[in-house]
Amino acid sequence: MIWDGREQEKGEGEREREMEEKRRVCVTGAGGFVASWLVKLLLSKGYFVHGTVRDPSNEKNAHLKKLENSSENLQLFSAELHDFNAIAAAIAGCKGVFHVASPVIFTEVSNPEVEIIMPALEGTKNVLNACSETKVKRVVVVSSVDSVVINPNWPKGTVMDENCWTDEEFCRKIQSWYCLSKVLAERGALDYGKKHGLDVVTVCPSTVLGPLLQSTVNFSSFFFINILKGSLDSIRNHQSWHFVDVRDLADALLLLYEKPDASGRYICTQEPIRIADFLKLLKNMYPNYEIPTNSLPELDEDSEMTSEKLKKIRWKCRELKETISDTVQYYEEAGLLSMDMKIVE
Ligand SMILES: NC(=O)c1ccc[n+]([C@@H]2O[C@H](COP(=O)([O-])OP(=O)(O)OC[C@H]3O[C@@H](n4cnc5c(N)ncnc54)[C@H](OP(=O)(O)O)[C@@H]3O)[C@@H](O)[C@H]2O)c1
Question: Which fold has domain 17-210+243-272+304-321?
C-alpha cells in the first residue's frame, strides 16, 4: 500500500473523530451533587460530556463551566425530565449515558405521585427511549440503597445484597415516596433493558457524603450538616448506617460504564457503622461540635449491606474517617456550619 501524506492526514482525522464519538457521553442532572463529581471525573479522563440541566444559564450550574477541560469538552443542554425531545437532543450522538437526575425530596409534598413518582418514572423512560433511538452502548442508572433495604420480609441478620429489593407495597403503606420512586424506576430500567435489548446497569449508593462542587446544598449533605449542628432527626429510625464517598461513587459509575462484563445492579457503599459509633467517631474528631451521643433510642438491629459485587470488579473506596474529614473541612471552609439553612425545593 502506498501512503500519501493527505491520506494519512485524513486517516488520522477520521480516527480522531471516531475516538471522540466513542468517548461522547451524556450525564442527566449534571449540576447536582453526585453528577457534578461524575462530570468532573469524565472530563479529567478525556470524555466529551453532554450534561443536562434545567437551565444552563442558572448561576447554580456555574461550577460546571469552571471544571478542568469544560470549555472544550462539556456541552450543557436544557432538559426537564418529562420533556422527551429535550432529553433526546442531549443524548443524540452519545455512546453512553449516566442517568443521575431524579427528584430527591424527603420533605412532605402535597401530591407525591406528581412531584416525585411521575418525574422519576417518566424521566427514566424518556432517557431509555432516547438511548434506544440513538443506539447507546450502555446506560448506567443511579438508583439508591432505598431500592434495596426497605424489605420487611428479608431474613433478619442476613446481609443484604443485590437480590434484596425494596417492597413497593410497604413503601406505599409507610408513605415513603422517594424510596418508592427509586425502586419503581430501577426495576423499570432493568426490565426495559431486557425487553428492548438495551445494556442497562444500575447502581445503588448508600448515603453520599463528600465535599460539594455545586453552590447549593443537596439533601444528604443537609442531613449531615444538621447532625454536626446537634440534630438527630435524620437518624432516629436507624441502628446502623451506610455511607459512600461521592468521589468513590463517581469512580464506581465510570467503572460500571467501562467494564464490558458489568451487568445488573450494584450496591455501592462503605462498610456499615452503628449510629452510636458514628456519633462517637464524630465527637472524637470534632470535640468542639455539639454532637449528641447519649440520647439514642433502642432499636432492632438493621440488616447490613455489602458491595462485594462491585469490589469484585476492582472498585475501591475510602475509609469513612477520610470522607468525614474532607467533608467537614469543606463545610467549614464554605461557612456551611455557621449558616442557618432551610430546605428550598
Ligand atoms: N445523595 C445521596 O445520599 C444519594 C443516595 C442514593 C442515591 N442518590 C441518587 O443520586 C442521584 C443524584 O442525587 P444527588 O444527591 O446528587 O441530589 P441532587 O444534587 O439534588 O441532584 C438531583 C438532580 O436531579 C435533577 N432533577 C430532579 N428533578 C428533575 C426534573 N424533573 N427534571 C430535570 N432534572 C431534575 C436536579 O436538578 P435541579 O437542581 O434543577 O432540581 C439535580 O440536578 C439521584 O438519582 C438520587 O436519587 C443520592
Answer: Rossmann fold (3.40.50)
